[in-house]
Specification:
By secondary structure, this protein is of the alpha+beta class. Helices cover about 30% and strands about 25% of the residues.
């Protein structure tokens, strides 16, 4: 520096008021001051009300201006000008952007601003503030509730002319319910929105159990709940976020594959990830198609309108829909990772918060607000009670008081007289007595004062209990949380699905019994078994599925949520699913197209389904085809999670699978044809073959006949045969002689035009129940013991009453409860 080595004592031109500092220290301190200013005053929300200063000031300015839900909308320009002029001396665009976001239903789970006009979309900006209007929403009033009762601290604004709150009372947990985003200096925050009802349940639990952990609270808060819905894949990211405050959540669009006989398959997207626009997905997909990186799409249409999302991908006929969909998830914003970073200001200091920390800090704020409000109300109630007590006592002395007041020179003299020894009123009581209106001298006036005094004393007792009792304080906070949940709570929008390979999946899904149904047109669904109540034989049943014209239920299987399902297609391939991977739906719903779950080739459909808990219980799988071919392969060869499936059997042209049966050494196979013929032979007559083998002849059938059912002969069970027109019978397996495979068999049931050809044949026990479903989608659950046992030549009895034009489509056994 100039003059640094000067020793003559001169000041070298420096004033004595100038302090010499190192530039490094000055820059460091200035940067720290700037960083803290950004962190505290702009970018990070307060953990108590979940608001940044600009949002808080907007809400407060609108509250002061009475821009409430019960008033008309006002121009956003008015609000922006008010906020800038009184509380937030920054750019108008920053204030307007903050205001707009609080009014966007696709940004906040519960918007704090009630918008009027164009507030934008995920892909388009809002109109200018001179065109749009706004007012506070009903839920925003809960953020400001009780603010005039000394519940929060106020500080002077930037020029000292107004006062603003340092935090809002926040009767609902805005930070976690609406979420927030912010980038400060050296840190950032990203808290996703959540479901209000789930959060309030967790808060109530935390009130009752202050030592609860984040894991305990996860029983109530399942995960983020985005306003744009979508599907969260897996819970690992959620668990990490809630335990540590940081994590990554994978969010996927909701898309279904629809089959159209004329136009082929198409993928329809109805929900998109949070803060992603339909236009972004459409543009990215179009680029990939043009660059030949995404194959199988022939057209993309954005059919979204009036707030509903619908993006359609028309597929080529040779495309595999599931493969195309997986590529869309992989290469477009139809699937995104959301980084969770739960940072908020706690006592003015930024902190990384776990789920428990965040909820606990909010509860501490509510305890403080309710305590301060109760103290304020208690003070006001005591002041009012003191005055009313004076008025009631004055009514007993009213004649003397009137005499004294009349004899006084002025109000001050009368005031002193009432405060004197004769009456002993306080100054507040004396002033109110002098202001007392004549109607208070009536009997009704006295009664009203006495009732008011009684109410005030009850209120004082209640408020005193809240102030002095921590248990009572907690109870009040719980009551208000329940009230908020009842007023504004709604159902979850975002589904939480399972990620492939998730380790804790068995612990997260109850192993309950379910009924799997697959229709002829390829719609699959799971329904809880208890949806089908037992009925008497011959009943009409209940609707099991609402299907389109021409569709009918083809496969029915009773299994459990943890079981493996092996689905065999008409092209001889096998696919694997777990029971819980099939969407659980209402008994009357149509279901989901199976191509949403499996990578089926065009024209491929499911022909047979079996289930297994493991691959060791049974030795072999025995395949039976429509033309009477049989093939036996070791069960373990199908233990594969390959999503594109495995070769299961090599089918001859024109043939197709009828059923696939688990078999073991010593089992006999019984096959039944449509025209009522049956053949029984040892499974050992079919040698084990590889997966790609075509098999050998098991049943020699006539030209018009084909196999409709087959099952393993089991001890203590009978063969149930059901015809197309709802008739059936049970027949003892011993009535079928054991023959060599390849024969023509013997009569199993006498087929008549009235009762129709055979539609199903299976082995059942006396304590079993069967589920029969008609081509119209109705189902009946019937105990087997109500179906009589008859000989091979009998024609059976009525099992199910059909509507005109209906026929029995499928029959399956119901597992006995374990």
């Amino acid at each position: 520096m100039p003059g640094e080595n000067n020793t003559d004592g001169s000041d070298n031109g420096y004033s004595e008021n100038v302090t010499r500092v190192e530039i490094q220290e000055e820059v460091e301190q200035s940067f720290i001051d700037y960083a803290m200013s950004v962190i505290v005053s702009r970018a990070l929300p307060d953990v108590r009300d979940g608001l940044k200063p600009v949002h808080r000031r907007i809400l407060w300015a609108m509250e002061e201006a009475n821009i409430r839900p019960d008033r008309g909308h006002v121009k956003c320009a008015t609000v922006v000008g008010d906020v800038i002029g009184k509380y937030h001396p920054h750019g108008d665009q920053a204030v307007y952007d903050a205001l707009v976001r609080m009014g966007q239903s696709f940004s906040l789970r519960h918007p704090l601003i009630d918008p009027h006009g164009n507030f934008g979309s995920p892909s388009d900006p809002p109109a200018a503030y001179r065109y749009t209007e706004c007012r506070l929403s009903a839920v925003a009033m809960e953020m400001l509730a009780d603010i005039d009762e000394d519940t929060v601290d106020f500080v002077p604004n930037f020029d000292g002319r107004h006062r603003e709150p340092t935090v809002l009372p926040a009767r609902f947990p805005n930070l976690i319910v609406n979420g927030t985003q912010g980038i400060a200096v050296g840190m950032a925050t990203n808290i996703p929105p959540h479901n209000l009802r789930e959060v309030t349940e967790a808060l109530i639990y935390l009130v009752d159990n202050p030592a609860a952990t984040s894991d305990d609270l996860m029983r109530f808060v399942k995960g983020p709940d985005f306003p744009t819905a979508g599907i969260i894949l897996g819970r690992r990211g959620i668990i990490d976020s809630y335990r540590t405050g940081r994590g990554s959540i994978r969010l996927r669009a909701r898309a279904e594959i629809e089959e159209d006989e004329r136009r082929g398959a198409r993928i329809v997207v109805t929900e998109i990830p949070y803060q992603i626009s339909v236009e972004q997905i459409e543009k990215k997909a179009a680029e990939l198609v043009e660059q030949k990186k995404l194959d199988g799409i022939r057209d993309i249409r954005n059919e979204s309108a009036q707030g509903s999302t619908r993006l359609v991908f028309e597929l080529r006929r040779d495309a595999v829909p599931k493969v195309v969909l997986n590529n869309l998830f992989l290469h477009t914003p139809m699937q995104v990772n959301i980084a969770v970073n739960m940072v908020a200001l706690v006592d003015g200091v930024p902190r990384l918060l776990s789920l428990r920390d965040l909820l606990d800090q909010y509860l501490r704020h509510r305890y403080d607000v309710v305590l301060r409000r109760s103290r304020y109300r208690l003070q006001r109630a005591r002041q009012r009670a003191h005055i009313v007590e004076g008025l009631v006592r004055a009514l007993d002395l009213i004649d003397r008081i009137i005499e004294v007041v009349r004899g006084s020179e002025d109000r001050q003299e009368a005031l002193q007289a009432l405060m004197g020894d004769e009456f002993g009123f306080s100054e507040e009581q004396a002033n109110h007595i002098l202001d007392m209106q004549l109607h208070r001298l009536t009997r009704l006036g006295r009664s009203n004062l006495e009732q008011e005094l009684a109410d005030l004393r009850a209120q004082i007792a209640d408020l005193t209990e809240i102030v002095e009792s921590e248990a009572r304080l907690r109870a009040v906070v719980k009551e208000e949380l329940e009230e908020i949940a009842n007023l504004f709570g709604d159902d979850r929008k975002t589904e939480i699905g399972f990620e492939e390979g998730e380790l804790s999946i068995e612990d997260l899904v109850a192993d309950e019994e379910i009924v799997i149904t697959i229709s002829a047109r390829g719609y699959i669904k799971a329904t809880k078994l208890d949806s089908f109540k037992p009925q008497e034989r011959g009943g009409k049943g209940k609707t099991a599925a609402t299907l389109k014209d021409g569709d009918f239920v083809q496969h029915v299987l009773t299994t459990t949520a943890h079981s493996y399902l092996l689905l065999f297609s008409n092209r001889g391939r096998v696919y694997r699913l777990r029971g819980h991977e099939i969407p659980l739906q209402d008994r009357r719903s149509r279901g989901t197209a199976v191509v949403n779950l499996l990578e089926l080739e065009p024209g491929e459909s499911i022909q047979a389904v079996i289930d297994t808990r493991d691959y060791e219980t049974n030795q072999y799988l025995l395949f039976v085809t429509k033309k009477g071919q049989v093939k036996k392969t070791r069960f373990g060869e199908y233990n594969s999670s390959k999503r594109s499936g495995l070769i299961a059997i090599n089918l001859k042209e024109g043939d197709e699978l009828v059923c696939v049966l688990p078999v073991n050494e010593g089992d006999d196979l019984l096959m039944i044809s449509r025209m009522g013929q049956g053949i029984r032979f040892h499974q050992s007559e079919v040698r084990p073959m590889g997966r790609s083998a075509a098999g050998v002849r098991g049943f020699n059938l006539g030209e018009e006949d084909f196999v409709v059912g087959a099952d393993v002969v089991r001890s203590g069970q009978t063969l149930l045969i059901v015809t197309e027109f709802g008739y059936g019978k049970r027949t003892q397996p011993e009535r079928f002689p054991v023959r060599h495979r390849g024969g023509k068999g013997v009569r199993a049931i006498r087929v008549t035009p009235k009762k129709g050809p055979v539609i199903a044949a299976l082995s059942v026990g006396m304590d079993d129940e069967v589920l029969a479903i008609t081509s119209g989608g109705r189902a009946i659950r019937c105990p087997v013991r109500e179906i009589p046992s008859q000989g091979r030549d009998a024609t059976g009895v009525r099992v199910m009453t059909l509507e005109e034009g209906e026929r029995v489509a499928a029959v399956a056994p119901v597992l006995s409860p374990s």
